[in-house]
């Protein structure tokens, strides 16, 4: 039951940025940041389009799907301790990715609300903190399933899914950079 609730929560968390970005689409500026250096320093911009607006939540969803593929293999581990540690690591990564996605979606949304706009630069710091803490927690929670993972048996289907998701991610990055121009 707890895993079902976690999966439902993750699904809702990955849907939220699409809703937030969709609600703010019309009010977004005509030029959007594509590549940032540090927090808030835009290096590359691109004209607003559906691709440019929805690329960030889509990239985060791809990361989440990759984590989900890996999570589906927690039963590959023979001992309960290694199985639980593996599940804890990848579920922490999945929740970190989902929270990062929500914060980035809120960042788009906040940029369209004048009352929140003066505080919107903090969203970048909160997002970065979320990622750093999430990665640290994943390492701590997965400490009992050290590499290598000889128990892990990815089916060809899962290897193809992971490669396909990675290829989609790379295609989005290339498309984003190709559509942008230096500021």
Largest sheet: 3 strands, antiparallel
Q: What best-fitting shape do the alpha-carbon axes yield? A: elongated
Supply the number of structural domains.
1
Query: Span from first to last CA?
Result: 50 Å
Uncertain stretches of 5 or more adjacent residues? none
Distinct helical segment count: 5
Quick description:
The chain is mainly alpha-helical and 183 residues long.
Draw up the topology in text:
Blueprint: H1 2-24, E1 31-37, E2 41-47, H2 50-71, H3 80-110, H4 121-141, H5 156-178, E3 181-182
Antiparallel strand pairs: 1-2, 2-3
Helix pairs in contact: 1-2, 1-3, 2-3, 2-5, 3-4
Give a written overview of the molecule:
The chain is mainly alpha-helical and 183 residues long. It has one domain (2-182). It contains five helices and three strands. It has a three-stranded antiparallel beta sheet with strand order 1-2-3, covered by helices on one side. A hairpin with a 3-residue loop joins strand 1 (31-37) and strand 2. Helix 2 (50-71) runs antiparallel to helix 3. The longest helix has 31 residues, at 80-110. The chain starts with a helix and ends with a strand. The relative contact order is 0.17. The model has no long low-confidence stretch (mean pLDDT 92).
């Amino acid at each position: 039951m707890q895993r079902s609730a976690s999966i439902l929560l993750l699904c809702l968390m990955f849907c939220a940025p699409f809703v937030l970005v969709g609600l703010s689409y019309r009010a977004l500026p005509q030029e959007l940041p594509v590549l940032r250096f540090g927090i808030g320093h835009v290096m590359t911009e691109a004209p607003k389009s559906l691709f440019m607006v929805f690329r960030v939540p889509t990239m985060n969803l791809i990361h989440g799907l990759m984590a989900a593929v890996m999570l589906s293999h927690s039963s590959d581990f023979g001992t309960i301790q290694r199985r639980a540690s593996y599940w804890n690591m990848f579920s922490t990564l999945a929740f970190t990715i989902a929270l990062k996605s929500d914060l980035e979606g809120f960042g788009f949304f906040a940029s369209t609300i004048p009352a929140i706009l003066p505080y919107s630069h903090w969203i970048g710091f909160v997002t970065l903190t979320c990622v750093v803490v999430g990665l640290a927690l994943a390492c701590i929670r997965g400490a009992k399933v050290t590499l290598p993972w000889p128990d892990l048996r990815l089916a060809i289907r899962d290897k193809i899914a992971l490669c396909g998701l990675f290829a989609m991610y790379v295609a989005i990055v290339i498309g984003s950079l190709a559509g942008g121009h230096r500021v």
